Amino acid sequence: MITRRTLLRRSTLALSPPACALPWAALAQVAPSATESQGYRGLHAAAQRGDVEEIERLAANKALLETRDAHGRTPLHVATFARQRGAVRALLRAGADPGALEDGRYDAVTIAAVADDETTLRVLLEEGASASLTTSRWDGTALIAAAHLGHAGVVRQLIAAGAPLDHVNNLHWTALMEAIVLGDGGARHQACVQALLQAGANATLTDRDGRTPLQLAQARGYDAMVRLLREHTPGKL
Fold first, then answer.
1. To which H or E segment does residue 195 belong?
2. Does residue 139 carry a pLDDT above 60?
3. pTM of the model
């Protein structure tokens, strides 16, 4: 299990974390298992299989929209994990709470962001879900999770939806910092850094040890990121 202490220790390393340890945000989420999915009944079952007609029928009882499974997942969480876009739309239009958090403190937007599921994310945002919620045990955001994982398309969608660019999580990192500290320095994370900088992310904020994004990129030898940071914030770094 990847702990907060492990993440903080990695932030001091000059080298990027090993690729196998990268997706800690994904590991923190618990998708329904095959056994759980087979055991679902009612609205959870309809959400899992994408049965829009059944969702519309059952959702006449509004209380059912917020029922929870053993991990605190609502039908909307289940539909999002299952990539059942029609079900996601039907649940939201029936009145499901788009900001509901499951036991790991993830909302549907963050679940889609971590999964790099741009299509489901688009449906959620079109139907009024927020890109601004504070989620996860790290008090982060969907944008921070997506930047960390190098999901550039998701990052751009969330930025367009008004996600807070400079939210600081309890590791004292922003989305820009996580794209560097927990990224691999490659093209995907470079694209995240570029999107964040173009949107106006603050490159002068510092981590818990007083290091700027530029200093973090320099320490890791991420030359392309160093160039991006210098190009987008001339005279400020």
1. helix 187-199
2. yes
3. 0.89
